[in-house]
Every structure is written in structure tokens, then in C-alpha cells.
From TrEMBL:
Family recorded in the similarity comment: Belongs to the methylthiotransferase family. MiaB subfamily.
Protein name (Swiss-Prot/TrEMBL): tRNA-2-methylthio-N(6)-dimethylallyladenosine synthase
NCBIfam families assigned: miaB-methiolase (TIGR01574), MiaB/RimO family radical SAM methylthiotransferase (TIGR00089)
Role description: Catalyzes the methylthiolation of N6-(dimethylallyl)adenosine (i(6)A), leading to the formation of 2-methylthio-N6-(dimethylallyl)adenosine (ms(2)i(6)A) at position 37 in tRNAs that read codons beginning with uridine.
Regions crossing the membrane: none
Pfam families: Radical_SAM (PF04055), TRAM (PF01938), UPF0004 (PF00919)
PROSITE patterns given in the database record: MTTASE_N, MTTASE_RADICAL, RADICAL_SAM, TRAM
Record: residues binding [4Fe-4S] cluster 2: 189, 193, 196
Length: 470
């Protein structure tokens, strides 16, 4: 891909800033506060995108609310990965007919991956006529222009063209809290796994320039953020489209040089692009967490080929063996899909056996959900859902036992954790995360919120650790 067509120039960005200023003037003319609500579904990339939407709305003079009835602008930033998420979005859109009736001037926007799908855009056009603006991820950077068109043309606006995608640097951002921050290092995906809609709605891979990422992380570290997560649909394929010979390990090495008391995490990764160089770099780093989320999806080679995953079971195990060799304290998590079209019970049990062999710290598990527009949605799928549920329950039981055993090993240890929130449980009023990302419920001083603390682990279960501040 020609990077000249990917990187937006200053004139294009200034055009959006001018629309932002005009919208701020229109909002000021109303003589009362203009409230906006941004509701986010799906992955951390969507969270990062929503923070840019919030930044643009802030610069337009908006204040923020969690009450849809109060909001003058409602933005639903959607996910297209799972059917359940789409149903929730349609339910929320239906509920907004009532707020629109109470406030006819309310502007309702649908964006994100779900909005980029042609059949969804057409359904909204025909059946959700109270929605004013629909735009996909590739049009995020021109949200001010699109919203201005809604205001001034008094008509519905759709921006869901099949675009290759761009990179817009310098977009405003409103981050939630001052402890954790998300930094997108690349956008799009080239993998075309047969079950996944992402390449069709987020475009081809395109990497941000290294210096832009380094500047972002340096600024966040200077501002006192304690955890910085690097985001991409496949972070460890970073740099393949750059003119300079940078890969993801090179980027981590440079980021690790930035001074400060912080951890770097990243997600998500593809086994085909995970390398010993990457694991060696993680092992030598001061700031990169020894945590790896490496989705395997299946433990059966035939199913992996049907999924268009370009590695096999042996290759995956080889990667894990090396990563654990250089990082004995590595915390490993993964994604698994059960019930892929054509999968047999014996093949599903191959995945269960892989889980037993690897002993992941935790798994994100899913029963196959067909996504319209993907090759897997057209595959013959004769196994009933009830049968897949049995396989799924077996997988979860095995993993739950492993997680419980691994968590029990922490009992009696003293760990450095980041205290990041409160809970509803009076016995364990605070929550925290270990360097490996393990959840800790604890007792201690609330002044520790947002800080690293030493915690002695006193108990555990399948899903969490429990402890007290030392």
C-alpha cells in the first residue's frame, strides 16, 4: 500500500479542526450546555477510538453524560465480532426512539465495525430512521465534518464506503482516568482468518511511524500513567508496511528506553508473527510486562487450516516453549473457538488436550458465531449448538481447574501490583492487577489507588487472587 495515500496531510487534518471550531460556535449559540454520550462495545481498539471521539466532542464544546435522555448527541461505537454484541446494539438503537421522541433535536450516531458492514448500514437506513449519522472506522478522523453535515443539511449522513483506511496523527483524545492508557500502533488486518470480519471493516494493515508512538508513550509516562497498552489487530506484524526496517520487537526496545515507573502491555498477537526476537526483547526489558496473549483458536491442525490460521499445533507449542524458557514468570492467555464449521468432537478434544498441555493462566473461550460476509459463514455446519455446548463445557471445566491450580501457587507470595479500582465487596474493597495481569482483590489504604503497592497473597480462586497490602 502506498503510504502517501495512508498518511493524512496537515491540510486534511486542519479541515477537520475548522469543522470542529464551527461546531463549537453552533453549540455556543444554543445558550445552554450541549451534552454528549459515547457508548462503546467490543475490543480495546474501540475503546481507544471512542476516546478520540470524546476528544473531538470536547473540542466542539460538549459536556458529557451517561444519561441518554439528557444527551443531545449519542454515539454508539460498535463491534461486529460477535452476534450478541450486534443484538445489544440494535436493542439500544430501538430504545433511543424514545429519547429522540422526547428531544427531536437529538443527534444519534452509529459508528465502528458493525456500522461498516453494508447489510447493517442498509438495515439502519430502512428500519432505524431516527439514526442521523452512520460511519465506519475508516471515517473516524472526519467525524467533525460528518456531524457538521448532519447539522447543516438536516438530513441523514452515511459514510461507509469501502476505503483502504488512513492514519490520522494528532487527533484529540479524552482518556478515562489517569492510570491506564491505550496507544494504537497500527490499524487494520491482513490475515483474513475465515471466521473474522475485521479485515473487511477495518481495512489493510497500516503502521504508525515509530517516532509518533514513542512521543505518545513518553508523554503518557511523563504524565504518570502506570500502564500503557499498545493496540493493533495484530501488533506483532507492526512495521511491515514501513519504509524503514522496523518490527514490533524494535519498537518495544525503543519504548523500553523511556524513563518512568510504568508497564507496557500489548494486544493482540498472531502466532505467525511471534518470534524468538520478540520474546528475547520482552525478557530483557525493564518496562514490558511478562504477559502474552497469544490466540491459538484451535488445537487441531485441520481446523486451523480451515480457519486460515498459518501455523500448526507444533509451531504454537514451539513458540510457547521458547517464550517460557526466556521468561519463566510469563503469564500466558489465549483465545479458543469451539464448534468451528465441520469440527468433530474428536477435533474439539484435540483443543482440550492442547489446553491441558500448555496450561494457560486463563482463556477467552467462544462457541463459533458465524459472521455474515466471512468464508466460514458459508461453510457446512452440521453439528447442533447443543452438542457444541457440551464440548465447550468440557473445555471450560479443564481450563477452570488449571486456572485455580495456577492461582493457588501465588498464595503466600508478596507481589507488586497496580491498585486500580474499588469493588462492591466490603471484605475486599480494592482491586489491583499483577505485572502478569492477574486480578487481585485486596484490603488496604484507598490512598493507594493509582499506585503500585506490595501485596501479600492470602487466598485465591479460579478467577482471582486475594490479599492485603504489606
Amino acid at each position: 500500500m502506498d503510504r502517501k495515500t495512508v498518511l493524512l496531510d496537515e491540510a486534511q487534518l486542519e479541515r477537520q479542526r475548522e469543522y470542529t471550531r464551527q461546531l463549537a460556535a453552533l453549540h455556543q449559540q444554543r445558550g445552554k450546555p450541549v451534552y454528549a454520550l459515547v457508548d462503546t462495545f467490543g475490543c480495546q481498539q474501540n475503546v481507544a477510538d471512542s476516546q478520540h471521539i470524546l476528544g473531538m466532542l470536547r473540542d466542539m464544546g460538549c459536556q458529557f453524560t451517561d444519561d441518554a435522555a439528557q444527551a443531545d448527541i449519542v454515539v454508539l461505537n460498535t463491534c461486529a465480532i460477535r452476534d450478541h454484541a450486534e443484538k445489544r446494539v440494535y436493542g439500544n438503537l430501538g430504545a433511543l426512539t424514545h429519547t429522540k421522541k422526547q428531544n427531536p433535536e437529538q443527534v444519534i450516531c452509529l459508528c465502528g465495525c458493525m456500522a461498516q458492514r453494508p447489510e447493517v448500514a442498509e438495515k439502519v437506513r430502512q428500519s432505524y430512521r431516527h439514526v442521523d449519522l452512520v460511519f465506519g472506522p475508516q471515517a473516524l478522523w472526519k467525524f467533525p465534518e460528518l456531524l457538521y453535515r448532519v447539522y447543516t443539511r438536516r438530513g441523514r449522513v452515511f459514510s461507509v464506503e469501502d476505503e483502504h483506511g488512513t492514519i490520522a496523527e494528532g487527533m484529540p483524545v479524552v482518556r478515562e482516568g489517569n492510570v491506564r492508557a491505550w496507544v494504537s500502533i497500527m490499524y487494520g488486518c491482513n490475515n483474513f482468518c475465515s471466521y473474522c470480519i475485521v479485515p473487511y471493516v477495518r481495512g489493510r494493515e497500516r503502521s504508525r511511524e515509530p517516532q509518533c508512538i514513542i512521543d505518545d508513550v513518553r508523554q503518557l509516562a511523563a504524565e504518570g500513567y502506570k500502564e500503557i497498552t499498545l493496540l493493533g489487530q495484530n501488533v506483532n506484524s507492526y512495521g511491515k508496511d514501513l519504509e524503514t526496517p522496523w518490527d514490533f520487537a524494535d519498537l518495544l526496545r525503543e519504548l523500553d528506553k523511556i524513563e518512568g515507573d510504568y508497564l507496557i502491555r500489548f494486544m493482540s498477537s498472531q502466532p505467525k508473527d511471534a518470534t524468538p526476537k520478540l520474546f528475547d526483547t520482552m525478557a530483557r526489558s525493564r518496562h514490558v510486562a511478562h504477559q502474552l496473549h497469544l490466540p491459538v483458536q484451535s488445537g487441531c491442525d485441520r481446523v486451523l487450516r480451515a480457519m486460515n490460521r498459518p501455523y500448526d499445533r507444533a509451531k504454537y507449542l514451539e513458540l510457547i516453549t521458547y517464550a517460557r524458557k526466556v521468561m519463566p514468570d510469563l503469564v500466558l492467555t489465549s483465545d479458543v473457538i469451539i464448534g468451528f464449521p465441520g469440527e468433530t468432537e474428536a477435533e474439539a478434544m484435540e483443543t482440550v488436550e492442547l489446553v491441558r498441555q500448555v496450561e494457560f493462566d486463563a482463556l477467552f473461550t467462544f462457541i463459533f458465531s458465524p459472521r455474515p460476509g466471512t468464508p466460514a459463514a458459508k461453510m457446512d455446519d452440521p453439528v447442533p449448538r447443543s452438542e457444541k455446548q457440551k464440548w465447550f463445557d468440557t473445555l471450560c471445566a479443564v481450563q477452570n481447574d488449571i486456572s485455580a491450580r495456577l492461582h493457588a501457587r501465588y498464595v503466600g507470595q508478596t507481589l507488586r501490583v497496580l491498585v486500580d479500582g474499588r469493588t462492591d465487596d466490603a471484605r475486599w474493597p480494592l482491586s489491583a492487577r499483577t505485572a502478569g495481569g492477574r486480578l487481585v482483590h485486596l484490603v488496604g489504604d484507598e490512598d493507594a489507588l493509582g499506585q503500585y503497592r506490595q501485596v501479600r497473597i492470602t487466598d485465591s480462586n479460579t478467577w482471582a487472587l486475594f490479599g492485603e497490602m504489606v
